[in-house]
């Protein structure tokens, strides 16, 4: 086949998980939680599956879930959203991103993407015919490079993608940073597409701020979330889009031709999950922060330089102090094959690899697995 997609490789997550399996490695690579699945939500799915219905739910999402999402917006962000016109349920955030990008972009447009970026953005942006303008954030602080960002905007800019909390670097954007991005978007009449799948994984008392809630940004901002992250159920693929009623119809045009709907039972179970009391959401954050600290301290004790992470379930480490030479990919391969621990090369989130080889670990794992990974690394070094 001769097409743009024929030239793409297999995702790094698939590749590294396969390598981990082949070598019996502890998989701290691909981002999926283990041992954190909430039994109540799974039980709610069981009930919903028994009760039905089993035919196509409404294209915009089961009303039960849309109402729960509206309550969630009000409860966590003091954000009033109309469940009939401003919420769309999708098959995961991956579909939400594809639908939103395909709906908004025309050939010849420019799209600003902050680097490091999640792997699904660029293929869809380019398939839609746009040119990606990359703006690189640099470790260890991952500060927003304002002059570079300003320079990336042009009369052709259709939208900017902002991922906060940010995979893979764990940056959580402040309201001030989002307001700066929003001001540039307004000046250039661009949309702000916010990938907020890790909205409930923000640590150390910092708060997640959805850009859509900031003054003057509602009409041009699209907020994307995922139950896969909030409920540690990545196979469920229940995502959602929140956008102003004036913008939503065009986003729905793309969704109706991508997946149209998402299984009702899973939507109902997610609705049940969203209505849980604060203990669930606080517990998730607390548990995840404890796992972050456990892994970060363990890796530091071994001698790796661990970068701070304020959100997501990922942390980045610099393996060079341990004498691991070569590219980040080579380091991840060596660690998997020889140490039995899998991480993800941070270069996979870049168009051109960053200067220093950095690797990403997922800490949303059982404490026993984190400890086992650390023990294996200790034996290896
Ligand atoms: N965006 C980011 C930043 C992610 O890390 C992921 C990973 N799972 C997704 C989107 C995709 O989410 P989903 O599994 O709901 O499709
Ligand atoms: N979002 C997950 C990660 O960053 C991976 C999802 C996938 O495998 N496509 O690791």
Key words describing this protein structure:
15% strand, binds glutamine, Aspartate Aminotransferase, domain 2, seven-stranded mixed beta sheet, alpha/beta, 381 residues, single chain, globular, Aspartate Aminotransferase, domain 1
Any chance you could write out the topology, listing elements then pairs?
Layout: H1 12-22, E1 26-27, H2 39-51, H3 63-77, E2 87-90, H4 92-104, E3 110-115, H5 121-127, E4 131-136, H6 146-152, E5 157-163, H7 175-187, E6 191-195, E7 221-226, H8 227-230, E8 239-243, H9 248-258, H10 264-274, H11 278-302, E9 305-306, E10 314-318, H12 328-339, E11 341-342, E12 344-345, E13 359-362, H13 367-380
Parallel strand pairs: 1-11, 3-4, 3-5, 5-6, 6-7
Antiparallel strand pairs: 2-8, 7-8, 9-10, 10-13, 12-13
The structure holds 4'-deoxy-4'-aminopyridoxal-5'-phosphate and glutamine (GLN).
InterPro entries: Aminotransferase_I/II_large, Kynurenine-oxoglutarate_AT, PyrdxlP-dep_Trfase, PyrdxlP-dep_Trfase_major, PyrdxlP-dep_Trfase_small
Domain Aminotransferase class I/classII large: 26-377
Protein name: Aminotransferase
């Amino acid at each position: 086949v001769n097409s743009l997609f024929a030239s793409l490789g297999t995702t790094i997550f698939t590749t590294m998980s396969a390598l981990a399996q082949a070598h019996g490695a502890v998989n701290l690579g691909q981002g999926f939680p283990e041992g954190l699945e909430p039994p109540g939500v799974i039980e709610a799915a069981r009930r919903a599956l028994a009760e039905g219905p089993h035919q196509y739910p409404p294209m915009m999402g089961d009303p039960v879930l849309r109402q729960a999402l509206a309550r969630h917006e009000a409860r966590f962000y003091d954000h009033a959203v109309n469940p009939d016109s401003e919420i769309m349920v999708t098959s995961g955030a991956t579909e939400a991103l594809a639908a939103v990008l395909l709906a908004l972009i025309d050939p010849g447009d420019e799209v600003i993407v902050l680097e490091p970026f999640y792997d699904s953005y660029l293929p869809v942006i380019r398939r839609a015919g746009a040119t990606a303008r990359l703006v690189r954030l640099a470790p260890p602080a991952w500060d927003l490079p304002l002059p570079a960002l300003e320079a990336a905007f042009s009369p052709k800019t259709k939208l900017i993608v902002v991922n906060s909390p940010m995979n893979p670097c764990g940056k959580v954007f402040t309201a001030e940073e989002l307001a700066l991005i929003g001001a540039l978007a307004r000046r250039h009449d661009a949309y702000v597409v916010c990938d907020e799948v890790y909205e409930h994984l923000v640590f150390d008392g910092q708060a997640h701020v959805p850009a859509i809630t900031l003054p003057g940004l509602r009409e041009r901002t699209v907020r994307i979330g995922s139950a896969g992250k909030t409920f540690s159920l990545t196979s469920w693929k229940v995502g959602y889009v929140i956008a102003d009623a004036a913008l939503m119809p065009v986003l729905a045009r793309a969704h109706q031709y991508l997946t149209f709907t998402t299984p009702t039972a899973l939507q109902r179970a997610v609705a049940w999950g969203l209505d849980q009391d604060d203990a669930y959401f606080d517990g998730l954050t607390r548990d995840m922060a404890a796992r972050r600290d456990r892994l970060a301290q363990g890796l530091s004790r071994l001698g790796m330089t661990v970068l701070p992470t304020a959100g997501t379930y990922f942390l980045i480490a610099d393996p060079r102090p341990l004498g691991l030479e070569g590219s980040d990919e080579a380091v991840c391969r060596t660690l998997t094959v020889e140490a039995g621990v899998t991480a993800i090369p941070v270069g996979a989130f870049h168009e051109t690899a960053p200067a220093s080889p950095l690797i990403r670990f997922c800490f949303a794992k059982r404490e026993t697995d984190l400890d086992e990974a650390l023990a294996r690394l200790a034996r290896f070094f």
